[in-house]
């Protein structure tokens, strides 16, 4: 059985914990995500430690956001780590996104549209004209025009973004919460089944899996639910 399109966010305070989570979930999921917490504590070598012998796809979530020249240099600096996906903030603008795409041709550059932790009220406070769906759509179209092959948005907007950018762009959705799970600091959330049904290609899920009593079993359970969703819609993994 092919692993489910889930990227487990390994947001752990230490490498041992992250590697343990990775070993528990990799039989069930396609991808693990290394973010700022692990990368800044352990440096680039953390990628090899996490990838290990499993061959799991590694998503490097650094959310780069700087002038084009600096982002191009940063992207080249991580090329040797061979991440499958690298995030940049769409708000950095088209030249910055293009610079990342050109600097790292073997990696999918994913442009983060509007952070899933931001509510409609937060958007107003930072001066972004809402509603969030419109802001996400504007940023998505701009990022794809600049060469991004992947986009990060909340599952609430994924159907709109899919309709706008077509089938060839990889849509990645954090802000995923199984029924009954707490939202925590996420503002725009939906269930894994809904995110997939609405067109997401890869679901980023952290604490609902890693904070559970048995991360392997939780990942397997969500993977099974996604398989049922795909089967119901005539798709397969
Ligand atoms: O780029 C991301 O992965 C990301 C973008 C976004 O808008 N929201 C968001 O939550 N994320 C990441 O997705 C993960 C979500 O983790 P949980 O809230 O624990 O499921 C975290 O590692 C975040 O850094």
Question: How would you sum up this structure, described in words?
Answer:
The chain has 237 residues and is an alpha/beta fold. The chain has a single domain, classed as TIM Barrel (Alpha-Beta Barrel). Helices cover 43% and strands 17% of the residues. An eight-stranded parallel β-barrel has the order 1-2-3-4-5-6-7-8, surrounded by seven helices. Helix 1 crosses helix 11, helix 4 runs parallel beside helix 5 and helix 7 runs parallel beside helix 8. The model has no long low-confidence stretch (mean pLDDT 96). Keywords: Decarboxylase, Lyase, Pyrimidine biosynthesis. This is Orotidine 5'-phosphate decarboxylase. Catalyzes the decarboxylation of orotidine 5'-monophosphate (OMP) to uridine 5'-monophosphate (UMP). Homodimer.
């Amino acid at each position: 059985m092919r692993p489910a399109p889930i990227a487990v966010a390994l947001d752990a305070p230490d490498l041992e914990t992250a590697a343990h989570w990775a070993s528990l979930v990799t039989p069930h999921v396609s991808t693990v995500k290394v973010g700022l917490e692990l990368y800044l504590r352990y440096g680039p070598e953390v990628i090899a430690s996490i990838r290990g012998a499993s061959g799991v796809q590694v998503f490097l979530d650094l959310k780069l956001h700087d002038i084009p020249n600096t982002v191009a240099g940063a992207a080249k600096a991580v090329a040797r780590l061979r991440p499958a996906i690298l995030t940049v903030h769409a708000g950095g603008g088209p030249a910055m996104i293009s610079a990342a795409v050109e600097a790292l041709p073997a990696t999918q550059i994913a442009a983060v549209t509007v952070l899933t932790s931001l509510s409609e009220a937060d958007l107003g406070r930072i001066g972004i004209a809402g509603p969030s769906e419109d802001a996400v759509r504007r940023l998505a179209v701009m990022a794809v025009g600049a060469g991004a092959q992947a986009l990060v948005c909340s599952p609430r907007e994924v159907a709109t973004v899919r309709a706008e950018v077509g089938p060839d762009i990889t849509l990645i959705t954090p802000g995923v919460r199984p029924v009954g799970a707490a939202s925590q600091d996420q503002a725009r959330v939906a269930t894994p089944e809904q995110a997939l049904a609405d067109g997401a290609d890869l679901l980023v899920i952290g604490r609902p899996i890693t904070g559970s009593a048995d991360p392997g079993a939780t990942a397997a359970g969500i993977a099974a639910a996604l398989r049922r969703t795909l089967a119901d819609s005539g798709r397969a993994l």
